[in-house]
Amino acid sequence: MISISPNPVSTKIFSRQYYTPANPPAANPYYFNCPGNSRVRISNIRHSMSTLANTSRCQLIFRIPTYPMYRICGTSTAPAALTTTDVHYSTGIREHFYRAADNVLYIPLQPDLFLDPGEIIIITTEDMGAVITIADVCISVDQWIIS
Amino acid sequence: MPSQNPVDISVFDLVTVIIPDPGAGNQIEYACPVNARIEILYLGFIFNTAAIVSSRYVQVLGVTPTLSQTMGACAIPQTTTLTWGWAWVAGLPQLVDLSAQLRMIIPMSPSLVLKPGDSLETSIINMQATDVISSIICRYRQWIIA
Q1: Residues A17 and A141 sit within 8 Å (Cβ to Cβ)
Q2: B113: nearest Cα among B18, B28, B3, B1
Q3: How big is the A-B interface in CB pairs under 8 Å?
Q4: Chain B interface residues facing chain A, Cβ-Cβ under 8 Å?
Q5: Structurally, what CATH architecture does the domain formed by A16-145 represent?
Q6: What pTM, to 2 d.p., does this model score?
Q7: Interface contact flag, B42 A62, Cβ < 8 Å
């Protein structure tokens, strides 16, 4: 099985877009679907993560429908329980950084996280459950219109 | 012999391929398509270790007809009777040790470029005849050159 998405455009010319979707329901991941007419390269993802008694490790999952899902990014650091943490996945940063006192978590993101139409990034956690809430998602992308 | 690039590298296909399971005791070996240059963005697989005591160290190689180059390696061994999910991500700056959750996210060279005749391979040190790799998925940039 093979999936090929031809690119008729040069990656040298692109626009910068910001996606600020509605919050997913509590205890659910957020699914970012690549626009149907575009190729995008994700530059940064920011979201908040609220925990109750339990906590969990943030992760990004790449998915093409009918293909196996795979994890592309994550952290071994679980934010503290009973907190709301600002989580930032950013290209170009070198190290994980978590500061519980300020409720911030920075996670390195791969530099060439391209998505073509039909492809999905799932913003989730290792043990996404009723105790975890993801909100305030903001995604920055470089975008090429391909149709 | 160097291979020239007749194409614009800013124009490429994104390809995701499921690689057939190699069978017990065998490593991954994925040959570059005969008409393309590719650059590996991601390699993922499940690795199941048998009940033979040994520390398996996983490496990813770019192999040409004359040499092989290690493009990613993990110093944390997978030991006996474990099933881990391995994710090799080009350009990621740091290893994400999720071994307690039975998975690893590992940096890989962002310039693992292969041309026809080359292959993407694993080289797992201390791999046993009954160890099994499965569910292999690979994503890469592709330039058609013929």
Answers
A1: yes
A2: B3
A3: 95
A4: 8, 10-18, 41-42, 44, 85, 87, 89-94, 96-98, 101, 103, 105, 110, 135, 137, 139, 141-142
A5: Sandwich (2.60)
A6: 0.92
A7: yes
Give the domains, in start order, of chain B with CATH numbers. 13-144 (2.60.120)
Partner-chain residue, chosen from A6, A11, A72, that has the shortest CB–CB distance to B89: A72
Question: Quick check: A67 and B16 CB within 8 A?
Answer: yes
Would you give per-residue pLDDT tens digits along chain B (146 residues)? 455 566 778 888 999 999 999 999 999 999 999 999 999 999 999 999 999 999 999 999 999 999 999 999 999 999 999 999 999 999 999 999 999 999 999 999 998 999 999 999 999 999 999 999 999 999 999 998 86
**Distance between start and end Cα atoms, chain A:** 25
Best residue in A42, A67, A76, A122 for a mutation probing chain B (most B CBs within 10 Å): A76
Contact by Cβ (8 Å): B97, B25: no
User: Nearest residue on chain B to A61, judged by CA atoms?
Assistant: B87
Give the C-alpha distances (Å, rounded to integers) separating B28 from A2, B38, B63, B71.
17, 17, 12, 14
| Contact across the interface for A70 and B44, Cβ inside 8 Å | yes
Its ipTM equals 0.90
Report strand pairing: A2-5 vs B13-19: antiparallel
pLDDT, one tens digit per residue, over A112-143 is 999 999 999 999 988 777 778 999 999 999 99
Instruction: Nearest chain B residue to A12 by CA: give it.
Output: B10
Tell me how far apart the alpha carbons of residues A116 and A34 are, in angstroms, rounded to a whole number: 6
Domains of chain A, residue spans: 16-145
